[in-house]
Amino acid sequence: MNSFYSLSIDKIEKNTAQSVVLTLGYEAKLAKKFSFRAGQYLTVRHHSEGEDLRRCYSICSIEGGPSLQIGIKKVEGGAFSSFANEKLKVGDRLEVMPPSGKFTLKSTSVARHVLAVAAGSGITPIISHIERILLEELNSNVTLIYANKTPSSIMFRERIEDLKNLYLKRFSVVHVLSSTPQDIELFSGRINADKLRGIVTSWGQNKSIDNVLLCGPEDMVHSLRDEFFELGVPHEKILYELFSTEKRKNMQPVKGKLTTLSEVAVTIILDGVTHKLEMNGGDTILSAALENSLDAPFSCQGGICSSCRCKIIEGSGEMEVNHALEDYEVQDGYALSCQLRPTTNKITITYDEGH
Ligand SMILES: Cc1cc2nc3c(=O)[nH]c(=O)nc-3n(C[C@H](O)[C@H](O)[C@H](O)COP(=O)(O)OP(=O)(O)OC[C@H]3O[C@@H](n4cnc5c(N)ncnc54)[C@H](O)[C@@H]3O)c2cc1C
Ligand code: FES
């Protein structure tokens, strides 16, 4: 289930003072497993002080290209991002799962305008999308609105400039800087719904928006998604990826019917083996599985990445947060086990049908 592969760090490039781009190498026989679509991410595993750290990183290299790259921005006090920025060396190895994720856009031969909005490290999957569209969809245009604090914190700055020069007529970029005043007031400050509306309406009628790609913090993504909808872009044309959620830490038990019960009988099917455990109704199924040393799949633990997807086959449960599953999947019994708390005193889930 948890198929991690040992990949080599072939190159480390300092992208900004606070971020690095890692080029990962793998044996030729893994080429198919590690082929990816623009927008997908890798789960990286690292053991630190007895802890099994797993983090997702979006692939920033070009789909179908020769390299597999991820960009990691250091988060203050962040366990893995600090390690990656400060300690990793060329020649080290990382345990990595094959690409995953649904932040992908179908290719089309019909001309379209794709508007991408990224904040900070949210550029990583977006840059991969932009390059694919510019290279493959010869009649399509792309606009990037990219929010950062200062010019020096802009990731992939040169790469974006090069793309702008190469695709003068098809690619435009608007930098919005929160800590550096700019000549145009609209491009200064934090990106929010009002600013977005101001930028988009300043184009007039000459740029209709066919698809939107959003990546950044949860509050920004949600407010911009609502604003794009108000501006007339249907929900199904707005794709987004979250890197973290407010709820990731300090999660409280949901007020489910039976979450106050002290003992729940849980059956977990994993890799064809049935495990029977007792758990506290306030815990998540994933935490119960890990406490019982099961090798259950997980990564973000924030209801974002869907690595921990399982299917409920008996009983029921409630998810605290769900940013990854569609309504129809939930109706079919699928759930994110990192968010799932039982609401019946007996529950059976399988990881084997979850993926
Ligand atoms: C699908 C997906 C794709 C991702 N792609 C990328 C990527 O391409 N590049 C990248 O740099 N990161 C990416 N992330 C975020 C990444 O997985 C980690 O969450 C991030 O690197 C922090 O991990 P850490 O171990 O350093 O911090 P932790 O030790 O987990 O957290 C330390 C502190 O930082 C806060 N925190 C955690 N994540 C963030 C964040 N993203 N921004 C601000 N504060 C945070 C925590 O709440 C905590 O207080 C992605 C996340 C997901 C779910
Ligand atoms: S581990 Fe990412 S959604 Fe559960």
Architecture overview:
By secondary structure, this protein is α/β, with parallel strands linked by helices. It has 3 domains: 5-96, Translation factors (Elongation Factor Tu (Ef-tu), domain 3), CATH 2.40.30.10; 113-244, Nucleotide-binding domain of ferredoxin-NADP reductase (FNR) module (Rossmann fold, 3-Layer(aba) Sandwich), CATH 3.40.50; 264-350, Beta-grasp domain (Ubiquitin-like (UB roll), Roll), CATH 3.10.20.30. Helices cover 19% and strands 32% of the residues. It is built from 7 helices and 18 strands. It has helices at 79-86, 123-136, 157-166, 193-202, 218-230, 285-291, 327-331, and strands spanning 5-16, 19-25, 41-48, 51-58, 68-73, 93-96, 113-119, 141-148, 171-177, 211-216, 238-242, 264-270, 273-279, 309-314, 317-319, 334-336, 340-342, 346-350. The strands form 4 sheets. Strands 4-3-6-1-2-5 form a 6-stranded antiparallel sheet, covered by helices on one side. Strands 9-8-7-10-11 form a 5-stranded parallel sheet, with helices on both faces. It has a 5-stranded mixed sheet with strand order 13-12-18-14-16. Helix 5 (218-230) links the parallel strand 10 and strand 11. Helix 4 packs across helix 5. The N and C termini lie close together (9 Å). Mean pLDDT is 92; it is low at 249-258. The structure holds flavin-adenine dinucleotide and FE2/S2 (inorganic) cluster. Residues 41, 55-58, 70-73, 75, 77-82, 121, 124, 241, 243-244, 248-249, 300, 304-305 line the site of flavin-adenine dinucleotide.
